[in-house]
Amino acid sequence: MSVSEQTPRASAVSAVLATSRLGIPSVVFFVMAAAAPLTVVAGGATTGYAVTGIVGIPVSYLVVAVILALFAVGYVAMSRHIVNAGAFYTYVSRGLGRPAGVSAAFVAVLAYNAMQIGLYGGFGAVLADFLDGRFGWSVPWWGCALVGWALVGALGVLRVDLNGRLLAVMLILEIAIAVVFDLVMVTHPAGGVVDFATLSPSHIFAAGIGAALVTAITGFVGFEATVVFSEETKDPKRTIARATYISVAVTGLLYGLSAWAMSVATGPDRIVAAARADGTGLMFNLVAPHVGRTLVNVGHLLFITSLFAALLAFHNTVARYLFALGRERVLPAALGRTSPRTGAPTRGSLTQTVLALLVLVTYAVVGLDPILHLFFWVTVTGGLGVLILMAATSAAVVGFFARDRRGEPLWRRLLAPALATIALVTVLVVTIEQFATLLGVEATSSLRWLFPAAYAVAALLGVGWALLLRVARPRIYAVIGLGAASATVAATPRPVVPSAARPASHVRV
Amino acid sequence: MCRTARPKPPSPGPDGEAPSRRCVRRTAVRLADSFYLAAHHDVTGKPRLHHRAIAYGLAAAILAELLYAHRILIDRASVTVVDRTPPPDPLARTVLDLLIAEPQHTRVRVWLDFLSQDSREQVGQRLCRDGTLRREESRRMWRSAVVYVPVDMNVAAWSSIRLSTKITRGEELTAGDVALAGLIAQTGLDTHVLAGAPRAARDYLCQLTDHAWPPLRELLVQTGIAIGGGVLSNRT
Predict the structure, then answer these.
(1) pTM of the entire structure?
(2) Does the structure's ipTM exceed the value 0.95?
(3) A–B: how many Cβ contacts below 8 A?
(4) Is A2 an 8 Å CB contact of chain B?
(5) Closest among A118, A52, A49 to A370, alpha carbons compared
(6) What is the DSSP letter of B144?
C-alpha cells in the first residue's frame, strides 16, 4: 500500500502479499530444523541399534517415511479447511468430537514435552563428551544440559528464534556432512563387501520391529508442523503439501541411507555390538580413520547444534500448544496470553522450562544415564505419543470428510487417511506389545507398561476434563478446536439480538 | 472473551446499528492515530507492542475508520464498499480506492494482511503531516532506522490516558472510543493501558468489546485471529 502509487489492474494486493509470504524452502527448512537430521542419524539411529538390538533400523526409516507420506495426504487436505491447523487436537476435535480432541490435546502436551526434555539428555551427554574429548574438561552431563536449558528458556521467553537463514545454512551443512560420512562409510565396508542386509524388507516382519518403527517415527517428529504455516504461504494449496512431502522424503532417505551406511561400515552382524560400544560416537568413530580430524570435529559440533535447534523447536512447540489451549480456555486462560512486547507465549514457555528443570534435576539426583534413560527412553516415549496422535488424526480426517466432502477427491478424503490409520494403528499395537524391547528391559519389567500408561492416563484425564467443561462451562466446550480466535468467536453469536435483550443465561463464563 | 459477568455498565451505544455520523466524524476518523499513539512510548516513540500486533492493530484501525465513515461494511469476515465518496483523509482515500479497484478480495483477513505490511509507516507519516510526530533517523550498526518521535508527550499520552480513565470509571464511551478499546484489548495493549486498574475495569473492557457494534466486532475477531495466528506460526 503506498499513498502515491497508482493501482494497476493486476492485483496490487496479491502482489504485495506474495512478497511477505513463505515459499516451499522456508517451510521445509523450518520443520526440518525441528526434525534435526544429524541428531537422528548420529543419536537416534545409533542408540536405536544399541538399545533395541534390532538390525532392521534402516528399513524402518524407509517404511515409516512411506506411512507418513500416506498420512500427510489427508492431513494436508484437512488443514485447508480448518483454522488453527497447527495443532493435532484441532483435527481430532473436528473429526472425532470434542472429548477426543481434549484428550488428544493432553496427549500432545505430554508427548512434545517428552520429546523436548528427552533431548536434553542427548544434548548434555554429547556436549560433555565433546568437551572432555577435545579439551579434556570434565563437565557432568547435567551441567551441559542445564546450560542448554537456560539458553532455551531465555530464548523462549524473549522469543528470539533462530534466524531462518542460519537454520537453513546449518541444516544444509548437517545434511552435507551426513551424506559425506555416509559415502565414506559405504566406500569402506567391513570385509570389503557392501551388504544390503539391513535394508531387507524381511526385517519388517521380524521380532521387535515395533521398537524399530517407533524409533524411526521419533526421528520424523516435527514434520507435522508444516501445516502451521498454511495461512502464511504463497499458495496454501500447494506449498504446504509439497513442503510436507519434501520434508518426509528428504529426511526418510537421509535417515535410511545413514543408518544403512553405518551397518555397512561395521558389517550388519556387528552393528548392534558396535553401537553398544561406541554409543552416539559410533558414526564419528567409523569415519575418523578415513577423514581428517577437522571434519570429524565439524560433524560433532553440528551434532550438538542440531540437538540445540531441536530443543528450541520443541520448546516452542510446547509453548504454542499451551498458548492455543489457553486461548480456547481448555487450559487456564493465562497460558493464552502473550507478552505485549515480544509476542512470546510467555506463560506457556515458562511452564515448559520449569517442567524440564524438574525432570533434569530428578535425573541428575537419581543418577540415571542421560543417553539411555533420558535421551532414548523419553524421546521414543514422545515418539509413541506422536504416533498415537497421528493415528487419531488420521481417523479424524476420515470422520471430518465423511460429514462434508468439501470438494476433496476420494483418495485424499477417504482412501489415503483410512490406509494411514490402519498402518499407524498397526505400528502402534506392535510397538506397545514390544515396548520392553524398545526400552531394552526384561519382558516382565513394569516399566514397559509405565510409559504407555502415561498416555492412557493423559487421554482419560482429557476426556474427563472435556465432559466436565461440557457441564460446567458449555460456552468454552462449544468452541473447542475452533482455534486461536475462539475466545472472541465464542463471545460472538450472530449479533442480531441487542445485548440488553439477551437472556441472563447468556452471560459469559 | 470475558471470564466473569459484571453488573452491566452504561451501554456504549446503540447495539446493532451504526453510530451516528456526527459522533463518528468527531471521534473515530482518526482512530488509527489514537491507536498509534497508545501503542508507542509517549516520549521516545518506541513501540510498546511487538511489531505484528502494531501492524495488524493499525491495519484494523484504518479499516475501522472507513467503517465508521460509512464507506465500507463488514459482515461475516468479508468487506464490501457501500459508499464510493472519497473520504477527506488521503490515507483513507487511498485504501478506499484500493478496495474499490480490487473487489475480488473480499475477505477481511486479506485486507488486514495487506494493510499491515506498511500500516505503521503510513499512519506514522500521517501523524507527521499534522505535526503530532516528527521523523527522526537513527543509525544503529550499519542500518538506519526511522523513528517517529512525539512532538508533545502530553498529546501523545492523551489518547490512552483518556481511555483508561473512562474505562476505569465505567463511563459511557463514544463509538470511536469503543473501537479504540476493542483494538487495545485485541492487541494485548490493555496490559499497558489498564496497568494498575482494578479488575472491574478489565471486565468493563471485555464487555465493551463483546457488545460492540457487530461489524466492529467482526473486525476485532479477524484482527485477533491474525495476531494469534502469528504466535502459532512463530512469526510475530
Answers:
(1) 0.85
(2) no
(3) 154
(4) yes
(5) A118
(6) E
